UniProtKB/TrEMBL annotation:
Any one cellular-component term (Gene Ontology): Sec62/Sec63 complex
GO molecular function: protein transmembrane transporter activity; RNA binding
Subcellular localization(s) per the UniProt record: Endoplasmic reticulum membrane
Residue ranges, annotated region (Disordered): 482-608, 708-753
Domain spans labelled J: 105-167
Record key words, sorted: Chaperone, Endoplasmic reticulum, Membrane, Protein transport, Transmembrane, Transmembrane helix, Transport
Biased amino acid composition, Basic residues: 522-533
Primary residence: endoplasmic reticulum
Biased composition (Acidic residues): 497-508
Any single GO BP term: SRP-dependent cotranslational protein targeting to membrane
Pfam family, one: DnaJ
Name of the protein described by the UniProt record: J domain-containing protein
TM annotation in the entry: 15-35, 74-94, 192-215
Amino acid sequence: MAGQKFQYDESGGTFYYFVLSFLALILIPTTIYYWPRKKKEDNSKLKEECQCADCQKKKTILANAEPYRALTSWTIKLTIVLGWALLLFLTYRVSQFDYEMASFDPFEILNVPPTSSQAEIKKAYYRLSKVLHPDKETGDEKSFMMLSKAYQALTDDVAKENYEKYGNPDGPGAMSFGIALPSWIVEKENSVWVLGLYGLVFMVAMPSAVGVWWYRSIRFSGDKVLLDTTQMYFYFIHKTPHMLLKRALMVLAASLEFDKRHNSQVQERQSDNDEVPALIRQLPNLNEKCKEHPLCRMYSIKARAILHAHLSRMPLNPETLERDRQFVVKKCPYLVQEMVSCVHQLVMMAYARRVPRLPSIETIENCMKMSPMIIQGLWEFKSPLLQLPHLTEDHLYFMNKKRHVKNLQQFAQLKPEESRQLLKNLSDFEYENTMKVLGKMPLIDFSIRCEVIDDENTNVVTAGAIVTVTVTLERKDMKTLFGDTKAPEKQGIKDEANEEAAGDEDEAAAAAPVKKASAWAKPRKGGKGKGGKKPAQNQKNQKKVPAKVAATATNTASEDQAAAGNSDAESDAGNAEGSDVESAAGSGSEDEEKGKNNSSLDDDDDEEWERLQAKLNKRERLEGKSRLSHTVHCPYFPEEKQEYWWTYICDRKSRTLLTAPYHVTNLVEKEEIQLKFTAPRWPGVYTFTVCLRSDSYLGMDQQQELKLDVQKAPAPPTDHPQWDLSESEPEHTDQQENLSDYTTDTSDEEDSD
């Protein structure tokens, strides 16, 4: 029976094959992916870019941000070239190897025909042995061994039989296993070095690398935000459920990413002891004397001062504070997104009755406002026209006085001669550059469609149904409005920030109890304040609304959607079985005719199933959505920024968030987003608001009002025994308590109180 043996590569041939294959598998894709390519400068694209002084300064900052780009490119090229040189060398070495023939042919070795007699075979053997014998000058031991084996295979009976059966005169060969590594690896004199290298790689280097990676990764969330920062956001949002914008800015500046103890990239200089106090004296309303931790710490005060200076567009020392400003501002978009996510999670937890206080819609909207403010370097109460290059406050005063132009859309709708007249003190180059930037800004066509997908009648909203709102966003350039004076106004929430900053009397009166409950104010006597029963009165009045109202969606100004009263913080807004609940709203309509035959019902079910499958497939495709849309004009932001948007549904009356803010990151031309939520569990007419907010531009926000006519849910049939839910009735009762009534049931509110 044949044996088995395990051997290393003696000649090194298979080792070369192994290295050659391994190197080729790595080198080919690496070359395709990493080979530096010089970007071709497109003159037409360069002409479309803004040429203002601030944008040119930003280009310089971006160029200086990577000082070793040329060295890195040269190193990559050299490494790839050396890899290909090694690949060619190995290919040449492999081609020079002379291997034994795979098949053993004794007649060919003896150089005799297969019909030769025994005498001719012996004669040929003796003749060749005199030449190949090792004792001869021309001898070759390896060739002589092959010659002897061939002679034996043709003359010896046993060897001849083995050759005829197994192709080898020695019989069946032993099964051998080999490894494509040279044999010197297992040689005794090299064992110490091999063992040391093995221990260094597998026992020191790899565990150390995994440990460092794990230690760093567990400190961050999925968006590369420190978990300690996320916990701090949760604490302050829960502590201040009605957070004002300045308060949100203070919390943002207290992020631990700006603390040197948590981030080694933070620079602390000796000059900060002089420059930071001098900067603080120039900034009003900084509230640097706040005693809350970590808002009172020096890193937080410094970051807050830098953010205030950035929003005021104050020049800073380019060698010290300007570098700190670039570092702080670059971190802010990710931190703002994390703060928005924290508010949403607290809202969902409040719906599930796991936290006592529900963050208001103003809290999450104030967090969202910080993103375009920081991207553009403007306070919220400033005119959005200041996002255009070359425009100053003097231009805005003249434009408002002459033509009452207050936003970007109104300015774009002016005729060319009118806009040129308003900016007559600008040079032709500056005017063309201003209009070029304005023409590339986004103009969003914002529309919504409501339905109940899972019901037979998708146009009727019943109590407790899952309502789906399909938000359609179609992006166009603002230049499509140039000279179009009849285009409708699209920025529906654009004046909300200005009204809040100006201290609108009606809104201040409605939100007065909320503002008194600010987190940093002194404790008030008398508990939670007055007006606790007012939401119940609103609920009673709401029941008097007519039962059937057609669903409509119209653009409304922000002042029409201001909060009209305080509702209980514990009013539920939907099912709380997941923190990733998506936003939606619905529309009601009259019931369809009842006399439909079975075949038509089957057709409707098939069509509904196909629509549902199409939407699910689209959602699966969007899971890997890109983060590239359009480049934002933001000369005061030290990095390239893409246009992103938030869309969500809220209830302005109860000042609550109904759905998770969906972050749209891939709006190039047109996108559809599905937002879902649970309809109120009490029949009636409800007014919700679908909002669209930009995270990059001021004055681009929109909102649409949605009236939802909720019908009474049909009673479940009782003639089906398999639908008997008597055993699970207690569980059903618990679930009913978690459903949202949207401030329509006064008895539930009194029970919760």
